[in-house]
Design a protein that fits this description.
It contains three helices and 17 strands. The chain has helices spanning 2-26, 30-36, 42-59; strands at residues 60-75, 89-104, 107-115, 125-126, 136-145, 153-159, 181-189, 195-205, 217-230, 233-245, 279-292, 295-306, 324-333, 340-350, 371-383, 386-397, 412-423. The chain is globular and about 85 Å long.
């Protein structure tokens, strides 16, 4: 048998050697063939190549990432209908995202495709179902304008990246996979040295209702300032207000999309999943970045409060539900370049109706609101494009009134994520 294998290898090698000249001759480009036949001069061929391809290639930017994740859930066996049925769970998932931007003078056309199930808070795809094919969805599709003489103003329309300043602590409101749909405006000015003022606005479509013209929208405004007195110190403070128009059961049906736990829903005769309460969300973001010798340190926090009246038993009257939340923590180091690392710790508390659960972080517990707990991770980049990360969540659910005691039918969910990510 070994002799047969060896003979086959030798025969293939000889065949490759014999075919190499022919293959080399057949691999000539069309341009080279035309030049050889005298149809084009070398100068004309070079000019045609530059005109047809080079200018367009220079306008295109391609990017993407692939993440492989092994995820463990450790449940306290108190099933609440939202947390894995009260049992421990393991799953392997991947996330693939590929995008491009085309620059046309002052206009940018952006497109990104992503794996997953088309959820607004996740582009993860679980590896399951006997090797069946997995879906690809439109994750971004937008037009953006920024004039060459007005760099301080940027206008965007379509399905876009989040136009607001959102730090890691900001996932009390925004999951980092959420790409809003609608219109956005960004203004950045520096009135004095080391100081930058910014103003961000967004008008986002939440759902289209065929029953009437009371479609739910989200209107957001954010203003803030960044002060960087030295290259080693930077402080940021921002306030935002997000008004969810026609989002409650009084005016519109359910918002659509993935429903996450938390929020008061389906009471007072409303269909299941329909929001009972209104959401006028106030958010404060603060951050301090310092360079401690060779090590960068980022301290940050978000405080959120729903300024609308919220109830637990229906639209009229009833006990008030919890309407505040916050997240504070620190990231030491920064895993970005080759041989760099970071470690982090955050504490989060998010009461039932502090914000719209369906847009908040999907990894904390089982996503949404009505939960509190700890988040910690460590990450290392052996190469600039490759990262290894381990992240752990320790969470407990909260009763609707915002108290700290866990409710009788829901408790702790701890989650461990091990990620291997490549950016390209």
């Amino acid at each position: 048998m070994k002799q047969q294998v060896a003979g086959l290898v030798v025969a293939l090698a000889m065949l490759a050697g014999l075919c190499a000249p022919a293959l080399a001759e057949e691999s000539m480009s069309l341009k080279d063939v035309l030049v050889e036949k005298g149809v084009l001069t070398k100068e004309d061929a070079a000019k045609a190549q530059e005109t047809v391809f080079a200018k367009w290639i220079n306008r295109l930017t391609f990017y993407g990432d692939l993440r492989i994740r092994d995820e463990q859930f450790f449940d306290d066996n108190n099933a609440d209908g939202a947390n894995n049925g009260g049992v421990d769970q393991n799953r392997v998932r991947f996330r693939l995202r590929v995008g491009t931007e085309l620059k046309l003078n002052d206009v940018i056309v952006g497109i990104r495709l992503a794996s997953g199930a088309g959820q607004q808070v996740s582009t993860n795809q679980t590896e399951t179902a006997l090797f069946t094919g997995k879906g690809i969805f439109i994750d971004k599709a937008y037009l953006s304008w920024q004039g060459s003489g007005t760099k301080w103003l940027k206008l965007t329309a379509g399905k876009m990246a989040n136009p607001f300043l959102v730090l890691y602590s900001g996932d009390v409101i925004w999951d980092d996979d959420v790409n809003p749909e609608g219109f956005a405006e960004n203004v950045n000015v520096s009135p004095v040295e080391h100081v930058t003022l910014f103003l961000n606005g967004g008008q986002f479509v939440l759902n289209e209702s065929g029953a009437n013209n009371h479609d739910p929208w989200m209107l957001g405004e954010q203003g803030g300032v960044t002060v960087a007195p030295t290259s080693e110190v930077k402080a940021t403070l921002a306030t935002a207000f997000y008004a969810f128009i026609n989002a409650s059961g009084r005016d519109a049906a359910a918002l659509g999309g993935t429903v996450q736990q938390g929020n008061t829903r389906g009471q007072a005769g409303l269909p299941a999943g329909v929001l009972n309460n209104n959401y006028r969300v106030f958010d404060v973001t603060a951050a301090l970045n310092i360079q401690a010798g060779p090590i960068p340190v980022a301290l940050m926090g978000d405080y959120v409060r729903n300024l609308a009246n919220t109830t637990i038993t229906g639209l009229a009257g009833g006990a008030a539900t919890g309407n505040i939340g916050y997240q504070v923590g620190a990231i030491v180091g920064k895993a970005a370049d080759a041989n760099t690392w970071e470690v982090a710790y955050f504490y989060k508390l998010l009461q039932t109706d502090a914000t719209v659960a369906d847009l908040a972080d999907s990894d904390f517990g089982n996503g949404g609101t009505a939960r509190r707990g700890h988040i910690m991770w460590a990450a290392y980049n052996p190469m600039k494009f490759l990262q290894v990360k381990v992240k752990y969540f320790i969470t407990k659910s909260m009763p609707a009134d915002g108290g700290l005691a866990t409710s009788t039918n829901a408790g702790a969910i701890n989650r461990l994520q091990a990620d291997l990510s490549v950016k390209f």
